[in-house]
Amino acid sequence: MKPLGPVPNTFSDKNGILAIDDEDAEALVARAGRTPLFVYSRALIRTRVARLRAALPAEIALHYAVKANPYKPVLETLLEDVDGFDIASGGELDLVVAAGIDPRQVSFAGPGKRDDELFKAIGLGVTLNVESENEARRALRLAEAAGRPPRIAIRVNPEFDLKGSGMKMGGGAKPFGLDAERVPALVREVVAGGAEWRGFHIFAGSQALSAEHIIETQAQTLQLAARLAEQGGAGCPHLNLGGGFGIPYFPGDEPLDLERVGAALAERLAVRPAVLAETRMCLELGRYLVGEAGVYLTRIVDRKVSHGEVFLITDGGMHHQLAASGNFGTVVRRNYPVAIASRFGAPVEEEASVVGCLCTPLDRLADKAGLPRAEVGDLVAVFCAGAYGATASPMQFLGQGPAAELMV
Ligand SMILES: *Cc1c(COP(=O)(O)O)cnc(C)c1O
Protein backbone atom coordinates (compact mmCIF):
# COMPACT_ATOMS: atom_id res chain seq x y z
CA MET A 1 0.00 0.00 0.00
CA LYS A 2 1.31 3.48 -0.83
CA PRO A 3 0.50 6.43 1.42
CA LEU A 4 -1.79 9.25 0.32
CA GLY A 5 -1.01 12.94 0.70
CA PRO A 6 -2.48 14.80 3.67
CA VAL A 7 -6.13 15.84 3.33
CA PRO A 8 -6.36 19.50 4.45
CA ASN A 9 -7.91 19.63 7.92
CA THR A 10 -10.46 22.19 6.73
CA PHE A 11 -12.77 19.46 5.44
CA SER A 12 -15.14 17.23 7.37
CA ASP A 13 -18.04 14.94 6.60
CA LYS A 14 -21.76 15.44 6.65
CA ASN A 15 -23.61 12.17 7.21
CA GLY A 16 -20.59 10.30 5.94
CA ILE A 17 -20.16 12.41 2.80
CA LEU A 18 -17.37 14.93 2.28
CA ALA A 19 -18.66 18.45 2.94
CA ILE A 20 -17.29 21.65 1.46
CA ASP A 21 -18.55 24.74 3.24
CA ASP A 22 -21.18 22.64 4.94
CA GLU A 23 -22.66 21.35 1.68
CA ASP A 24 -22.14 17.68 0.92
CA ALA A 25 -20.34 16.62 -2.23
CA GLU A 26 -23.41 14.90 -3.75
CA ALA A 27 -25.45 18.07 -3.32
CA LEU A 28 -22.66 20.08 -4.94
CA VAL A 29 -22.53 17.72 -7.90
CA ALA A 30 -26.32 17.93 -8.21
CA ARG A 31 -26.03 21.72 -8.16
CA ALA A 32 -23.37 21.72 -10.90
CA GLY A 33 -25.30 19.12 -12.88
CA ARG A 34 -22.38 16.77 -13.52
CA THR A 35 -19.03 15.33 -12.69
CA PRO A 36 -16.10 15.82 -13.07
CA LEU A 37 -16.35 18.99 -11.04
CA PHE A 38 -13.98 21.43 -9.43
CA VAL A 39 -15.43 23.03 -6.31
CA TYR A 40 -13.70 26.09 -4.83
CA SER A 41 -14.53 27.53 -1.44
CA ARG A 42 -14.67 31.30 -1.13
CA ALA A 43 -14.55 31.00 2.65
CA LEU A 44 -11.34 28.98 2.53
CA ILE A 45 -9.69 31.49 0.19
CA ARG A 46 -10.75 34.32 2.49
CA THR A 47 -9.44 32.51 5.56
CA ARG A 48 -6.12 31.97 3.85
CA VAL A 49 -5.78 35.64 2.93
CA ALA A 50 -6.64 36.64 6.50
CA ARG A 51 -3.96 34.33 7.88
CA LEU A 52 -1.41 35.86 5.53
CA ARG A 53 -2.40 39.39 6.53
CA ALA A 54 -2.06 38.49 10.19
CA ALA A 55 1.33 36.81 9.77
CA LEU A 56 3.03 39.19 7.35
CA PRO A 57 4.23 42.74 8.03
CA ALA A 58 1.39 45.17 7.28
CA GLU A 59 3.41 46.97 4.63
CA ILE A 60 3.67 43.83 2.46
CA ALA A 61 1.11 43.94 -0.33
CA LEU A 62 -0.38 40.66 -1.52
CA HIS A 63 -0.57 39.85 -5.20
CA TYR A 64 -2.28 36.88 -6.79
CA ALA A 65 -0.52 34.95 -9.57
CA VAL A 66 -3.46 34.47 -11.93
CA LYS A 67 -2.05 31.42 -13.67
CA ALA A 68 -2.73 29.31 -10.56
CA ASN A 69 -6.47 29.61 -11.18
CA PRO A 70 -8.03 32.20 -13.50
CA TYR A 71 -11.67 31.10 -12.91
CA LYS A 72 -13.72 34.28 -12.87
CA PRO A 73 -15.37 33.83 -9.46
CA VAL A 74 -11.91 33.19 -7.98
CA LEU A 75 -10.65 36.46 -9.46
CA GLU A 76 -13.77 38.27 -8.27
CA THR A 77 -13.28 36.92 -4.76
CA LEU A 78 -9.64 37.94 -4.65
CA LEU A 79 -10.41 41.33 -6.14
CA GLU A 80 -11.86 42.24 -2.77
CA ASP A 81 -9.03 40.66 -0.80
CA VAL A 82 -5.66 41.21 -2.45
CA ASP A 83 -3.76 44.28 -3.62
CA GLY A 84 -2.65 43.25 -7.07
CA PHE A 85 -2.71 40.62 -9.79
CA ASP A 86 0.20 39.16 -11.72
CA ILE A 87 -0.50 37.88 -15.20
CA ALA A 88 1.66 36.12 -17.75
CA SER A 89 -0.20 36.48 -21.05
CA GLY A 90 -2.53 38.67 -23.04
CA GLY A 91 -5.22 36.05 -22.45
CA GLU A 92 -4.88 36.49 -18.70
CA LEU A 93 -5.03 40.24 -19.21
CA ASP A 94 -8.44 39.80 -20.87
CA LEU A 95 -9.57 37.63 -17.95
CA VAL A 96 -8.58 40.12 -15.25
CA VAL A 97 -10.20 42.99 -17.15
CA ALA A 98 -13.39 40.92 -17.56
CA ALA A 99 -13.39 40.24 -13.81
CA GLY A 100 -13.47 43.99 -13.16
CA ILE A 101 -9.88 44.31 -11.94
CA ASP A 102 -8.25 47.72 -12.38
CA PRO A 103 -5.36 47.24 -14.86
CA ARG A 104 -3.24 49.62 -12.80
CA GLN A 105 -3.18 46.90 -10.11
CA VAL A 106 -1.85 44.41 -12.64
CA SER A 107 1.70 43.45 -13.56
CA PHE A 108 2.60 41.40 -16.59
CA ALA A 109 5.55 38.96 -16.56
CA GLY A 110 6.36 36.19 -19.02
CA PRO A 111 9.32 35.58 -21.30
CA GLY A 112 7.62 35.85 -24.71
CA LYS A 113 5.31 38.85 -24.75
CA ARG A 114 4.11 39.70 -28.25
CA ASP A 115 3.80 43.23 -29.58
CA ASP A 116 0.01 43.11 -29.53
CA GLU A 117 0.04 42.01 -25.89
CA LEU A 118 2.53 44.71 -24.92
CA PHE A 119 0.59 47.38 -26.79
CA LYS A 120 -2.67 46.52 -25.10
CA ALA A 121 -1.06 46.29 -21.66
CA ILE A 122 0.67 49.66 -22.06
CA GLY A 123 -2.59 51.26 -23.17
CA LEU A 124 -4.32 49.99 -20.05
CA GLY A 125 -1.57 51.09 -17.66
CA VAL A 126 -0.44 47.59 -16.72
CA THR A 127 3.09 47.35 -15.27
CA LEU A 128 5.36 45.35 -17.55
CA ASN A 129 7.87 43.13 -15.80
CA VAL A 130 10.25 43.14 -18.75
CA GLU A 131 12.29 40.02 -19.23
CA SER A 132 15.01 41.21 -21.63
CA GLU A 133 16.59 44.29 -23.18
CA ASN A 134 14.77 43.52 -26.43
CA GLU A 135 11.44 43.41 -24.73
CA ALA A 136 12.11 46.69 -22.91
CA ARG A 137 13.02 48.39 -26.19
CA ARG A 138 9.93 47.03 -27.93
CA ALA A 139 7.83 48.31 -25.05
CA LEU A 140 9.36 51.80 -25.33
CA ARG A 141 8.71 51.84 -29.08
CA LEU A 142 5.15 50.60 -28.74
CA ALA A 143 4.49 53.13 -26.00
CA GLU A 144 5.20 55.93 -28.46
CA ALA A 145 2.49 54.55 -30.73
CA ALA A 146 0.18 54.13 -27.73
CA GLY A 147 0.84 57.75 -26.74
CA ARG A 148 1.51 56.94 -23.12
CA PRO A 149 4.64 56.14 -21.14
CA PRO A 150 5.02 52.46 -20.34
CA ARG A 151 5.16 51.43 -16.70
CA ILE A 152 8.24 49.25 -16.53
CA ALA A 153 9.74 47.02 -13.88
CA ILE A 154 12.65 44.72 -14.64
CA ARG A 155 12.43 41.05 -13.87
CA VAL A 156 15.79 39.98 -12.52
CA ASN A 157 17.24 36.51 -12.90
CA PRO A 158 18.82 36.20 -9.46
CA GLU A 159 22.11 34.40 -8.86
CA PHE A 160 20.37 32.32 -6.19
CA ASP A 161 17.41 29.96 -6.31
CA LEU A 162 14.79 29.06 -3.74
CA LYS A 163 16.21 25.95 -2.08
CA GLY A 164 13.91 22.99 -1.77
CA SER A 165 11.43 24.49 -4.23
CA GLY A 166 9.43 22.27 -6.56
CA MET A 167 10.14 24.55 -9.51
CA LYS A 168 13.27 26.66 -9.65
CA MET A 169 12.92 29.94 -11.49
CA GLY A 170 16.29 31.54 -10.75
CA GLY A 171 19.97 30.72 -10.46
CA GLY A 172 22.07 30.08 -13.54
CA ALA A 173 20.93 30.18 -17.15
CA LYS A 174 17.20 30.82 -17.34
CA PRO A 175 14.74 32.11 -19.92
CA PHE A 176 13.22 34.33 -17.21
CA GLY A 177 14.37 37.82 -16.37
CA LEU A 178 17.63 39.58 -17.00
CA ASP A 179 20.91 38.42 -15.48
CA ALA A 180 21.62 40.71 -12.55
CA GLU A 181 24.80 42.27 -13.90
CA ARG A 182 22.96 43.57 -16.98
CA VAL A 183 20.15 45.16 -14.99
CA PRO A 184 21.67 48.54 -14.02
CA ALA A 185 22.33 49.50 -17.65
CA LEU A 186 18.77 48.63 -18.62
CA VAL A 187 17.37 50.65 -15.71
CA ARG A 188 19.18 53.72 -17.06
CA GLU A 189 17.98 52.99 -20.58
CA VAL A 190 14.28 52.63 -19.72
CA VAL A 191 14.33 55.70 -17.47
CA ALA A 192 16.06 57.72 -20.21
CA GLY A 193 13.52 56.33 -22.67
CA GLY A 194 10.67 57.98 -20.74
CA ALA A 195 9.26 54.95 -18.92
CA GLU A 196 7.54 55.25 -15.58
CA TRP A 197 10.09 53.35 -13.48
CA ARG A 198 8.43 50.76 -11.26
CA GLY A 199 11.30 48.71 -9.81
CA PHE A 200 12.24 45.05 -9.69
CA HIS A 201 10.57 41.66 -9.87
CA ILE A 202 12.65 38.85 -8.39
CA PHE A 203 11.04 35.41 -8.36
CA ALA A 204 13.37 32.59 -7.32
CA GLY A 205 11.10 29.55 -7.19
CA SER A 206 7.84 27.85 -6.34
CA GLN A 207 6.34 25.30 -3.94
CA ALA A 208 8.72 25.61 -0.98
CA LEU A 209 7.54 24.25 2.36
CA SER A 210 10.61 25.21 4.37
CA ALA A 211 10.33 28.52 6.23
CA GLU A 212 14.09 28.58 6.52
CA HIS A 213 14.59 28.45 2.76
CA ILE A 214 12.00 31.12 2.11
CA ILE A 215 13.51 33.36 4.78
CA GLU A 216 16.96 32.95 3.26
CA THR A 217 15.67 33.72 -0.24
CA GLN A 218 13.81 36.82 0.94
CA ALA A 219 16.97 38.10 2.60
CA GLN A 220 18.96 37.52 -0.58
CA THR A 221 16.22 39.17 -2.64
CA LEU A 222 16.25 42.31 -0.50
CA GLN A 223 20.03 42.47 -0.72
CA LEU A 224 20.03 42.06 -4.49
CA ALA A 225 17.27 44.65 -4.95
CA ALA A 226 19.18 47.15 -2.80
CA ARG A 227 22.35 46.64 -4.80
CA LEU A 228 20.55 47.01 -8.13
CA ALA A 229 18.63 50.05 -6.91
CA GLU A 230 21.96 51.71 -6.07
CA GLN A 231 23.66 50.69 -9.28
CA GLY A 232 20.74 51.59 -11.55
CA GLY A 233 20.59 55.06 -10.03
CA ALA A 234 16.78 55.20 -10.12
CA GLY A 235 15.96 53.56 -6.81
CA CYS A 236 13.25 50.97 -6.46
CA PRO A 237 9.71 52.32 -6.06
CA HIS A 238 8.22 48.80 -6.04
CA LEU A 239 9.75 45.46 -5.27
CA ASN A 240 8.07 42.18 -6.07
CA LEU A 241 9.79 39.78 -3.68
CA GLY A 242 8.46 36.69 -5.44
CA GLY A 243 6.66 34.10 -3.38
CA GLY A 244 7.14 30.39 -3.59
CA PHE A 245 5.00 29.54 -0.54
CA GLY A 246 4.12 25.88 -0.98
CA ILE A 247 1.25 23.67 0.18
CA PRO A 248 1.47 20.05 1.38
CA TYR A 249 0.59 17.71 -1.47
CA PHE A 250 2.44 14.53 -0.62
CA PRO A 251 2.79 12.07 2.25
CA GLY A 252 5.14 13.52 4.84
CA ASP A 253 4.79 17.13 3.61
CA GLU A 254 4.44 19.58 6.50
CA PRO A 255 2.68 22.92 6.06
CA LEU A 256 4.82 26.04 5.79
CA ASP A 257 5.45 27.84 9.08
CA LEU A 258 3.92 31.09 7.87
CA GLU A 259 4.27 32.91 11.18
CA ARG A 260 8.00 32.27 11.19
CA VAL A 261 8.35 33.62 7.65
CA GLY A 262 6.37 36.74 8.58
CA ALA A 263 8.38 37.42 11.72
CA ALA A 264 11.69 37.03 9.90
CA LEU A 265 10.57 39.33 7.10
CA ALA A 266 9.54 42.00 9.62
CA GLU A 267 12.98 41.82 11.23
CA ARG A 268 14.66 42.04 7.86
CA LEU A 269 12.58 45.04 6.78
CA ALA A 270 13.42 46.85 10.00
CA VAL A 271 17.11 46.84 9.05
CA ARG A 272 16.73 47.26 5.31
CA PRO A 273 19.25 49.32 3.35
CA ALA A 274 18.38 53.02 3.07
CA VAL A 275 17.87 52.80 -0.68
CA LEU A 276 14.79 50.62 -0.01
CA ALA A 277 13.36 52.89 2.69
CA GLU A 278 10.46 54.10 0.52
CA THR A 279 10.03 50.91 -1.51
CA ARG A 280 6.56 49.37 -1.64
CA MET A 281 6.92 45.62 -1.44
CA CYS A 282 4.69 42.76 -2.46
CA LEU A 283 4.60 39.00 -2.50
CA GLU A 284 3.04 37.16 -5.42
CA LEU A 285 1.32 33.95 -4.43
CA GLY A 286 -0.61 31.47 -6.51
CA ARG A 287 -1.21 28.03 -5.04
CA TYR A 288 -0.83 29.21 -1.44
CA LEU A 289 -3.93 31.39 -1.83
CA VAL A 290 -6.20 28.99 -3.69
CA GLY A 291 -4.71 25.49 -3.88
CA GLU A 292 -6.15 24.01 -0.71
CA ALA A 293 -9.50 25.75 -1.27
CA GLY A 294 -10.31 23.51 -4.22
CA VAL A 295 -11.54 19.92 -4.48
CA TYR A 296 -11.93 17.88 -7.66
CA LEU A 297 -14.87 15.48 -7.63
CA THR A 298 -15.13 12.60 -10.06
CA ARG A 299 -17.47 9.59 -10.15
CA ILE A 300 -16.50 5.96 -10.33
CA VAL A 301 -17.81 4.45 -13.57
CA ASP A 302 -16.20 1.03 -13.30
CA ARG A 303 -14.54 -1.20 -10.77
CA LYS A 304 -12.36 -4.03 -11.92
CA VAL A 305 -9.68 -6.41 -10.77
CA SER A 306 -6.60 -7.17 -12.83
CA HIS A 307 -3.97 -9.61 -11.62
CA GLY A 308 -5.36 -9.23 -8.15
CA GLU A 309 -5.21 -5.41 -8.11
CA VAL A 310 -8.35 -3.30 -7.75
CA PHE A 311 -8.89 -0.42 -10.18
CA LEU A 312 -11.49 2.26 -9.56
CA ILE A 313 -12.10 3.90 -12.92
CA THR A 314 -13.49 7.41 -12.80
CA ASP A 315 -15.06 9.83 -15.25
CA GLY A 316 -12.22 12.32 -14.59
CA GLY A 317 -8.48 12.11 -14.83
CA MET A 318 -5.23 13.71 -15.86
CA HIS A 319 -6.92 15.91 -18.47
CA HIS A 320 -8.09 17.98 -15.47
CA GLN A 321 -5.56 16.90 -12.87
CA LEU A 322 -2.22 16.62 -14.60
CA ALA A 323 -0.36 17.39 -11.37
CA ALA A 324 -2.21 14.78 -9.31
CA SER A 325 -1.44 12.21 -12.00
CA GLY A 326 2.25 12.91 -11.40
CA ASN A 327 2.95 14.30 -14.85
CA PHE A 328 3.45 18.01 -14.07
CA GLY A 329 6.97 18.68 -12.86
CA THR A 330 7.49 15.75 -10.51
CA VAL A 331 10.29 13.21 -10.87
CA VAL A 332 8.92 10.41 -8.71
CA ARG A 333 5.17 9.80 -8.75
CA ARG A 334 3.63 10.16 -5.29
CA ASN A 335 0.00 10.20 -4.28
CA TYR A 336 -1.93 13.41 -3.80
CA PRO A 337 -4.52 13.53 -1.02
CA VAL A 338 -7.40 11.50 -2.41
CA ALA A 339 -10.50 10.12 -0.68
CA ILE A 340 -13.77 8.38 -1.45
CA ALA A 341 -15.96 11.47 -0.97
CA SER A 342 -19.18 9.49 -0.65
CA ARG A 343 -17.65 7.41 2.19
CA PHE A 344 -15.58 10.18 3.76
CA GLY A 345 -13.94 9.15 6.99
CA ALA A 346 -14.83 5.46 6.55
CA PRO A 347 -12.07 3.03 7.54
CA VAL A 348 -9.56 1.63 5.08
CA GLU A 349 -10.79 -1.72 3.72
CA GLU A 350 -8.70 -2.43 0.66
CA GLU A 351 -5.85 -1.38 -1.56
CA ALA A 352 -7.03 0.20 -4.80
CA SER A 353 -5.72 2.40 -7.58
CA VAL A 354 -7.89 5.28 -8.73
CA VAL A 355 -7.48 5.92 -12.43
CA GLY A 356 -9.02 8.27 -14.95
CA CYS A 357 -10.95 7.47 -18.11
CA LEU A 358 -8.14 8.29 -20.53
CA CYS A 359 -6.65 5.46 -22.54
CA THR A 360 -3.10 5.93 -21.26
CA PRO A 361 -1.22 4.40 -18.31
CA LEU A 362 -0.24 7.96 -17.28
CA ASP A 363 -3.79 8.60 -16.13
CA ARG A 364 -3.62 7.60 -12.48
CA LEU A 365 -5.04 9.70 -9.64
CA ALA A 366 -4.01 7.42 -6.76
CA ASP A 367 -1.66 4.49 -6.88
CA LYS A 368 -2.20 1.43 -4.62
CA ALA A 369 -3.92 3.51 -1.97
CA GLY A 370 -5.63 2.31 1.17
CA LEU A 371 -9.32 3.19 0.76
CA PRO A 372 -12.75 2.15 1.99
CA ARG A 373 -14.32 -0.29 -0.46
CA ALA A 374 -15.87 1.82 -3.21
CA GLU A 375 -18.39 0.85 -5.87
CA VAL A 376 -19.59 2.16 -9.19
CA GLY A 377 -21.42 5.41 -8.46
CA ASP A 378 -19.23 6.47 -5.56
CA LEU A 379 -17.58 9.90 -5.69
CA VAL A 380 -13.83 10.37 -5.47
CA ALA A 381 -12.30 13.61 -4.17
CA VAL A 382 -8.85 14.84 -5.12
CA PHE A 383 -7.74 17.60 -2.73
CA CYS A 384 -5.33 20.50 -3.29
CA ALA A 385 -7.16 21.01 -6.59
CA GLY A 386 -7.65 24.76 -6.41
CA ALA A 387 -4.47 25.61 -8.32
CA TYR A 388 -2.98 24.29 -11.57
CA GLY A 389 -5.95 22.01 -12.21
CA ALA A 390 -8.52 23.05 -14.78
CA THR A 391 -6.22 25.28 -16.85
CA ALA A 392 -2.89 23.50 -16.36
CA SER A 393 -4.01 20.12 -17.68
CA PRO A 394 -4.37 18.79 -21.25
CA MET A 395 -8.13 19.23 -21.30
CA GLN A 396 -8.53 18.37 -24.99
CA PHE A 397 -6.56 15.14 -24.72
CA LEU A 398 -8.65 12.21 -25.97
CA GLY A 399 -11.58 14.49 -26.59
CA GLN A 400 -12.71 14.56 -22.98
CA GLY A 401 -13.38 18.27 -22.68
CA PRO A 402 -13.44 20.48 -19.60
CA ALA A 403 -14.64 19.76 -16.09
CA ALA A 404 -17.43 21.79 -14.53
CA GLU A 405 -16.39 24.45 -12.00
CA LEU A 406 -18.33 25.80 -9.05
CA MET A 407 -17.58 28.42 -6.42
CA VAL A 408 -19.27 28.01 -3.08
C1 LIG B 1 3.95 30.60 -11.37
C2 LIG B 1 4.40 31.84 -10.81
C3 LIG B 1 3.92 32.27 -9.58
C4 LIG B 1 2.97 31.47 -8.73
O1 LIG B 1 3.58 30.34 -8.21
P1 LIG B 1 2.86 29.53 -7.03
O2 LIG B 1 3.77 28.40 -6.79
O3 LIG B 1 1.53 29.10 -7.53
O4 LIG B 1 2.74 30.45 -5.88
C5 LIG B 1 4.32 33.50 -9.12
N1 LIG B 1 5.18 34.26 -9.84
C6 LIG B 1 5.68 33.87 -11.03
C7 LIG B 1 6.60 34.75 -11.76
C8 LIG B 1 5.33 32.65 -11.55
O5 LIG B 1 5.83 32.26 -12.72
From TrEMBL:
One term of GO molecular function: diaminopimelate decarboxylase activity
What cofactor does its activity depend on? pyridoxal 5'-phosphate
Cite the entry's keywords alphabetically. Answer: Pyridoxal phosphate
What positions constitute the catalytic site?
Answer: 359 (proton donor)
- Which intervals hold domain Orn/DAP/Arg decarboxylase 2 N-terminal? 43-290
N6-(pyridoxal phosphate)lysine sites (modified residues)? 67
- Name any Gene Ontology BP term: polyamine biosynthetic process
Recorded hits in SUPFAM superfamilies, A to Z, give:
Alanine racemase C-terminal domain-like (SSF50621), PLP-binding barrel (SSF51419)
Q: Which NCBIfam families does this entry report, sorted A to Z?
A: dCO2ase_PEP1 (TIGR03099)
Provide the protein name: Pyridoxal-dependent decarboxylase, exosortase A system-associated
Whose protein is this, by species? Novosphingobium piscinae
